């Protein structure tokens, strides 16, 4: 038995994981896995069964040790066989005499009747069964503890590989048309609302694995794109060969000849052209050909030939880069009612799309309060994130329904389902029409308490919506968004013009501009920040204080933009100490003095505020209030740091809740402490835009609630119909609770009694 020590177990485990990770595609990874496990354990059979979500059946996807023709043929329901028992129990099943177990089922296709020992280990990902890893042996014995531990560890490693393959569409368990039945995928709510449209797959450049299949009508056009790409790459290879003439020996330069032969029309070029003629677009044809070659190389015993895998992949990436460059020169067509879908849709990817044609967003990764989801909420685009098992690359142009209320995605929905969601959309439209009555009303409770409602902005598109819905100013201007839409830092004059538009649009109402807040989940393509733990890393004020040249340019632009308007407030993000505020305030004073000396602009010192986003700021709120004019709570990050939940990590996203008692008690503490020294307090996170939490914040005494324009009228209606006395009574009740789900239930019960529950979700929503 090879696994006689912990060190040998770890060494074998590492080797298997490394081989699986380096496999050219998912099926090759499974084949390598079962072969390596069988050899490492010294058992007769190793198999992998994976769950077919469409039919809820476990399908044999790889095996080493019995009839390989059974792969893809043998399947069983979750209540069948020992494999099904392992999956339903969600725990290892270790049997000495498998055939004597009442759940044993014999499949003649496998030829397994002479195997006695059975060990099945479930493959789990985020509490969901993806499949079962199985070992079988002729000996009449139970597998020992070391073998079980090894298989459990390996299964845990494999779970991520399986989940990722499903996302990329590399795992096609069921054969046949994708449109044969409605597929349902569960994720997390990114932005509320429902929509019906067609999928447009977005993927990062030069990522061969994520290129989707896409049917094309104009085959000749795709062949022409391929020919241009092949010629360009050939020219690059020849130029590289020539440049290295004096540096490499002839034998070493022979690789370039190999590359050129591989690019020949009788080699890769011809194979890709055949796939195009079969109806796939050039990039999808390229990916499928490269995948096939990599799989073949992986099976070779000769180490030298196996090393040629990297050459094939390199050529594939070079060709893909050329094809994508040609595509970028053309304007990609987005149909009306496009639903953007990708493995990881960034804020920049969303904003680069034609927003007038985008009706929904689906991201396989991410969480409800990622920056992209926040921007989608601001734009009123229904969004579902963290849909970990959706086969992204196979869904281009598929009809989809996105239910942002419950975080669900339907692919190829049935006629009945479409009708149901069209009714929900009509109800939403009716609610929107009813909310129009609140456009010109003040946010005043029935018993006479007024609340200031402001808007969060970042795009000029936000301005028109905010003014139309009666925003009383800007509580948060996200200055990083204009930075994200450029390929370099915008100049001082470019920034001045951008900020001037915002300030003029709302004058004389105040506009609170947050200084550059990058890092974490907000990257600039020209200023990348790579960190193991970005949430606790270099972000917000830390970046700009380390780069005062960036900070000073931005502050000067803001001050210039506010000339004669005097409605600028400056907000400092991600503050954790008094010294940071002192340094930032000193730089702002210096910028004012510089501009006053230059004399071109009549600038004045704006009101300066600090964001409360980390626990340290809560504890030091009294000290910070001495240095600033106002306080603004960023509830998204504050919730993240209080609960130790990365808001971009879908694995723990279910733990993130603004209704958590720790969050509610913390924000109330900040309000009370700031008011004790007569400093106004606003809240600009997503808590302010949720009608349920908004009435709790109102009861706490917040001076201003700032939210996306899409939520303004909902919150205003909730305030206008909720007496302050009733809101305060509700607040006192829920602050005594110790579970977020209990608090949410109590708030929703109150909203139901007030006739306001439809502000959270339509009554006909498919919950």
How would you explain this protein's 3D organization?
- This protein has 767 residues and is α/β, with parallel strands linked by helices.
- The protein has 26 helices and 22 strands.
- The chain has an eight-stranded mixed beta sheet with strand order 7-14-13-9-10-11-12-8.
- Strand 5 and strand 6 (128-137) form a beta hairpin.
- It is globular, with a radius of gyration of 30 Å.
- It starts with 5 loop residues before the first helix and ends in a 14-residue tail after the last helix.
- Mean pLDDT is 85; it is low at 174-180.
Secondary structure layout plus pairing:
Layout (H helix, E strand, L loop, with lengths): L5 H16 L4 H16 L3 E8 L4 E8 L10 E3 L3 H9 L3 E3 L21 E9 L2 E10 L7 H23 L15 E4 L1 E4 L2 E8 L17 H25 L6 H13 L5 H10 L4 H17 L4 H27 L8 E5 L4 H6 L5 E6 L7 H9 L3 E3 L13 E5 L4 E4 L3 H21 L16 E6 L2 H9 L5 E5 L1 H5 L7 H15 L4 E4 L26 H6 L1 H14 L6 E5 L5 H21 L8 E6 L2 H5 L1 H5 L4 E4 L1 H9 L17 H16 L4 E3 L7 H10 L3 E4 L4 H9 L3 H11 L5 H14 L14
Parallel strand pairs: 9-10, 10-11, 11-12, 15-16, 15-22, 16-17, 17-18, 18-19, 19-20, 20-21, 21-22
Antiparallel strand pairs: 1-2, 1-6, 2-3, 4-5, 5-6, 7-14, 8-12, 9-13, 13-14
Please give a quick description of this structure.
This protein has 767 residues and is an alpha/beta fold.
Main features:
eight-stranded mixed sheet; alpha/beta; single chain; eight-stranded parallel barrel; 767 residues
């Amino acid at each position: 038995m090879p696994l006689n020590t912990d060190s040998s177990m770890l060494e074998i485990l590492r080797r298997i994981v490394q081989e699986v990770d380096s496999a050219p595609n998912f099926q090759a990874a499974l084949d390598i896995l079962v072969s390596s496990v069988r050899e490492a354990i010294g058992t007769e059979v190793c198999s992998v069964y994976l769950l077919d979500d469409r039919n809820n059946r476990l399908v044999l996807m790889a095996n080493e040790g019995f009839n390989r023709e059974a792969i893809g043929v043998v399947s069983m329901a979750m209540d069948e066989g020992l494999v099904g028992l392992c999956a339903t129990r969600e725990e290892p099943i270790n049997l000495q005499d498998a055939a004597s177990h009442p759940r044993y089922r014999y499949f003649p296709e496998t030829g397994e009747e002479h195997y006695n020992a059975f060990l099945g280990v479930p493959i789990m990902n985020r509490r969901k069964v993806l499949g079962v890893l199985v070992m079988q042996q002729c000996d009449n014995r139970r597998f020992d503890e070391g073998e079980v531990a090894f298989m459990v560890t390996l299964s845990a490693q494999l779970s991520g590989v399986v989940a990722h393959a499903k996302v990329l569409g590399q795992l096609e368990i069921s054969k046949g048309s994708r449109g044969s039945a409605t597929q349902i995928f569960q994720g997390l709510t990114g932005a509320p609302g429902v929509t019906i449209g067609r999928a447009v797959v977005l993927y990062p450049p030069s990522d061969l694995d994520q290129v989707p299949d896409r049917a094309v009508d104009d085959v000749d056009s795709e062949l022409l794109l391929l020919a241009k790409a092949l010629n360009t790459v050939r020219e690059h290879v020849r130029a590289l060969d020539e440049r290295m003439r004096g540096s490499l020996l002839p034998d070493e330069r022979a690789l370039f000849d190999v590359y050129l032969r591989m690019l020949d029309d009788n080699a890769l070029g011809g194979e890709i052209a055949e796939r195009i003629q079969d109806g796939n677009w050039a990039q999808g044809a390229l990916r499928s050909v490269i995948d096939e070659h990599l799989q073949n190389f992986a099976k070779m015993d000769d180490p030298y030939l196996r090393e040629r895998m990297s050459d094939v992949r390199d050529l594939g990436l070079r060709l893909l880069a050329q094809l994508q460059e040609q595509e970028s020169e053309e304007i990609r067509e987005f149909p009306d009612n496009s639903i953007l879908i990708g493995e990881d849709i960034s804020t920049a990817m969303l904003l680069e799309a034609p927003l007038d044609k985008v009706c929904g967003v689906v991201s396989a990764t991410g969480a409800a309060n990622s920056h992209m989801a926040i921007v989608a909420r601001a734009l009123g685009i229904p969004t579902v994130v963290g849909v970990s098992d959706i086969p992204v690359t196979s869904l281009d142009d598929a009809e989809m329904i996105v239910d942002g209320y419950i975080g669900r995605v339907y692919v190829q929905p049935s006629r009945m389902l479409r009708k149901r969601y069209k009714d929900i959309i009509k109800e939403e439209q009716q609610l929107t029409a009813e909310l129009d009555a609140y456009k010109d009303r003040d946010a005043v409770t029935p018993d006479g308490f007024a609340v200031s409602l402001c808007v969060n902005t970042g795009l000029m598109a936000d301005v028109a919506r905010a003014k139309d819905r009666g925003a009383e100013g800007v509580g948060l201007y996200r200055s990083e968004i204009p930075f994200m839409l450029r390929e370099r830092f915008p100049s001082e004059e470019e920034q001045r013009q951008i900020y001037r538009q915002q300030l003029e649009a709302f004058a004389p109402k105040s506009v609170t501009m947050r200084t550059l807040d990058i890092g974490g989940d907000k990257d600039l393509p020209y200023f990348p920040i790579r960190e193991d733990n970005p949430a606790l890393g270099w972000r917000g004020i830390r970046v700009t204080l380390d780069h005062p040249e960036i900070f000073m340019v931005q502050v000067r632009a803001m001050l210039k933009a506010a000339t004669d308007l005097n409605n600028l407030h400056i907000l400092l993000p991600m503050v954790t100490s008094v010294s940071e505020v002192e340094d930032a305030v000193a730089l702002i004073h210096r910028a004012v003095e510089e501009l006053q000396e230059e004399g071109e602009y009549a600038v004045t010192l704006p009101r300066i505020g600090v964001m409360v986003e980390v626990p340290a700021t809560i504890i030091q709120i009294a000290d910070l209030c001495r240095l600033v004019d106002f306080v603004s709570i960023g509830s998204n990050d504050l919730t993240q740091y209080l609960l130790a939940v990365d808001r971009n990590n879908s694995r723990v996203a279910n733990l993130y809740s603004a209704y958590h008692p720790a969050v509610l008690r913390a924000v109330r503490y900040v309000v009370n402490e700031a008011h004790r020294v007569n400093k106004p307090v606003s809240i600009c996170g997503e808590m302010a835009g949720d009608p349920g939490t908004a009435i709790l914040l109102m009861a706490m005494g917040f001076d201003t609630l700032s939210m996306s324009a899409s939520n303004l009228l909902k919150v205003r209606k909730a305030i206008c119909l909720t007496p302050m006395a009733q809101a305060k009574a509700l607040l006192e009740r829920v602050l005594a609770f110790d579970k977020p789900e209990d608090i949410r239930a109590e708030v929703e019960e109150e909203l139901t009694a007030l006739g306001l529950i439809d502000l959270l979700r339509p009554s006909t929503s498919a919950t």
